[in-house]
Amino acid sequence: MKADSIRLPSQTPTAARLRGFASAALRLAARALPSQCALCGNLSQRVLCDGCDAQYWNEPRLRCATCALPMAASAIRRERENARLHCGACLESPPAFNDTLALADYRAPLDTLAVELKFRALLAAGEAFARNLRAVFEDSDLPRPDLIVPVPLSHTRLVARGYNQAWAIARPLARMMSVRADASIVTRVRHTSAQSRLDQETRRRNVASAFAVSGDVRGKHVGVVDDVMTSGATLDALARTLKLAGARRVSNFVALRTPKD
């Protein structure tokens, strides 16, 4: 059974039909009743109106191929035109992950969308992030992952929030890419302080040994999904754990990237 499927204790034909009717009615209502764009407030049947959708995704930034940090054109030196770009930090001390794809910088107005997803359960934002991450992936030269996993929350934080915002992106992204998704293969075994309150070195210590792998990732290319990448310490710790478990390659798919720590 797929990791993201749900097993029902009993399922009569009548109950199944009723659930089908209810689901169809909700989809029809969503199409028929206009809502508001999460960014500009204009009427829209999707989380973003057509204008915001066209304007804010995929900003033209040169990014490090490893960590997706924005790079100034003046700082780039390439031996050949098709060479992958890498920032000085990744060249000097490579992280455990191999690649990072990011949609845009973590700044207004898209940071509002990330906050709405993370703290106000605007799960439709996860679908929007996934749709655009899939497009960025298709334009990249990265190989397709064998497996997609979200950055896990600790049990304490998951219970308090009620959902994992990274899974709200990872699940539709995996479906769009025709890749298996698994929200249980990686767990956070240690509750940690919020990374946003810590400096870079403390962030690294904070997430050291925070994760565990419970499934078979040997020889696999694992895609790791998160909503926001700041210092990269969490993703580095998770990639290190995956590689110690035998993962061949780890690629990050992040909605937004903080330009600087």
TrEMBL record:
It comes from the Bacteria. Residues 170-256 form the Phosphoribosyltransferase domain. Pfam families: Pribosyltran. Transmembrane segments: none annotated. InterPro entries: ComF/GntX_DNA_util-trans (IPR051910), PRTase-like (IPR029057), PRTase_dom (IPR000836). Belongs to the ComF/GntX family. This is ComF family protein. It comes from Caballeronia jiangsuensis.
